[in-house]
Specification:
With about 425 residues, the chain is of the alpha/beta class. The protein folds into two domains: about 10-170, ATPase, nucleotide binding domain (Nucleotidyltransferase, domain 5, 2-Layer Sandwich), CATH 3.30.420; about 220-410, ATPase, nucleotide binding domain (Nucleotidyltransferase, domain 5, 2-Layer Sandwich). The chain has 16 helices and 14 strands. The strands form two sheets. Strands 5-4-3-2-1-6-8-7 form an eight-stranded mixed β-sheet, with helices on both faces. A hairpin with a 5-residue loop joins strand 4 (about 65-70) and strand 5 (about 75-80). Helix 2 crosses helix 4 and helix 12 crosses helix 14. The radius of gyration is 23 Å and the shape is globular. The two termini are about 35 Å apart. The model is unreliable at about 1-20 (pLDDT under 50). It binds adenosine-5'-diphosphate (ADP). Adenosine-5'-diphosphate binds next to helix 11 and helix 13.
Length: about 425
């Protein structure tokens, strides 16, 4: 018995030493976000959190274009055939290790790889080290994200082939939202659809909601275990989440990213009966209707101008009423969700804006907050006029703090990867 205890103590001390060595080791993490015909990447030094190089591959399977940018240098663009993700990732690795412009000398300097994985279903409530079992579990979620998960898995498999032995981690868009209670994730549908087909609210942008809500708690000096934060992630895709004591309790996106607020080209919430009505009028089948709701609606569809907030703003300023209405519908919708989440948490300490629109469009933030005077919110106009920086935009006497916190999903994936490997 004594012998066993001694052994355990020895093992424990060796383990602690190993952990210390790992802590002191500088790790370069390659963060990969693989889409069906594109791939975004960043190489991050996990110690300094400096981005050593970043870029993307576009038009994979069509013709192929690599964008590569080493820190402090200009972007390099290379047009070259990329029939599959394998050639694309090979080109990224070649660029990273290029004699003249590479950020590293050899691939041995890539210590870990972190992959964005869109859907982890109910199987993943946190990030996971990639193993054969893990891949099989992700594959079981493919039906829930047929456009995204298979592409994410291709990236994982190609990296395993090209960099054997380098540990890989999957970071899920859905994981942060797995703490939602049943009353927030169940739909008013026959319960068999949940029990048999897993039809429920999952929520997306979880890496961003997690990163931004954590940062908000630190930045605003809140007590994590007694905090109520609403995160408005407003980009091309937009979602809002209610985060109580650091855990997500509700979010606007659902089984798919189509639900919630009006987005660049997605409709967000509509009366589901509209689908049948329009199908008959426009002679569309289900796929045609889904295409309209995902790609032809939202700010783009409402304005007939653009899905891009900058274009929309310019059109509204020039007197385009449809563009103006699209912005109004967006801001009114956000304010209604925020109000709902104040009720869900019975209060709110901070409302945080992030992503392209949230970080840059002061007019959107101002319009949203103009509905929230009942919460005792007052905006500091000068602070709200700033763009893209971490800043409190409410006045010191505002009863609820309002802030802008730039999101950084790549850094969040890097941190998760380091924590797991
Ligand atoms: P994605 O969901 O593709 O990651 P982003 O978070 O990059 O999207 O957000 C894109 C949105 O941010 C677009 O609607 C764009 O118009 C908007 N945006 C970016 N810069 C500005 C700006 N300076 N002012 C207003 N909107 C902006």
């Amino acid at each position: 018995m004594l012998h066993t205890v001694w052994n355990l103590q020895t093992v424990n001390s060796i383990y602690k030493k190993t952990i210390r060595n790992q802590e002191s080791k500088i790790m370069n993490v390659l963060v990969i976000n693989c889409g069906s015909s594109s791939l975004k990447y960043q190489l991050i030094n996990s110690d300094t959190e400096e981005v050593l190089a970043k870029g993307l591959c576009e038009r994979i399977g069509i013709d192929g274009r690599l964008v590569y940018q080493k820190a402090g240098c200009d972007k390099e663009i290379t047009e070259a055939a990329m029939p599959t993700h394998k050639e694309a990732i090979k080109m990224v690795l070649d660029a990273l290790t290029n004699d003249k412009t590479g950020a590293i000398k050899s691939l041995t300097e890539v210590n870990a790889i972190g992959h964005r994985v869109v859907h982890g279903g109910e199987k993943f409530a946190s990030s996971a080290v990639i193993t054969d079992e893990m891949i099989a579990a992700v594959e079981e979620c493919n039906e829930l994200a047929p456009l995204h998960n298979p592409a994410n898995l291709i990236g994982i498999r190609v990296c395993a082939e090209l960099m054997p032995g380098v540990p890989q981690v999957g970071v899920f868009d859905t994981a942060f939202h797995q703490t939602m209670p049943a009353k927030a994730y169940l739909y008013g549908l026959p319960i068999e659809y949940y029990k048999e087909y897993k039809v429920r609210r999952y929520g997306f942008h979880g890496t961003s909601h997690s990163f931004v809500s954590k940062r908000a708690i630190d930045f605003l000096g809140l007590d994590k275990d007694n905090s109520k934060v609403i995160v408005c992630h407003l980009g091309n895709g937009s979602s809002i989440s209610a985060v109580q004591n650091g855990k997500c309790v509700d979010t606007t996106m659902g089984l798919t990213p189509l639900e919630g607020v009006v987005m660049g080209t997605r409709s967000g919430n509509i009366d589901p009966a509209i689908m049948e009505y329009i199908a008959k009028k426009e002679n569309l089948d289900l796929a045609g209707i889904m295409n309209v709701l995902n790609k032809k609606s939202g700010l783009q569809g409402m304005s007939g101008v653009s899905s891009d907030m900058r274009d929309l703003q310019a059109a509204a300023d020039a007197g385009n009423v449809d563009a103006e209405n699209a912005i109004e519908v967006l801001c009114y919708g956000i304010a209604k969700f925020v109000g709902g989440y104040v009720a869900a948490m019975n209060g709110v300490d901070a409302i945080v804006f992030t992503a392209g629109i949230g970080e840059n469009a002061g007019n959107v933030r101002e319009k949203v907050c103009s509905y929230l005077g009942y919460l005792g919110i007052t905006l500091d106009e000068e602070a709200n006029g700033k763009r893209g920086e971490e800043i409190v935009i409410s006045t010191p006497d505002s009863k609820v703090k309002v802030a802008v916190i730039p999101t950084n999903e790549e850094l969040a994936i890097c941190r998760e990867t380091v924590a797991l490997v």
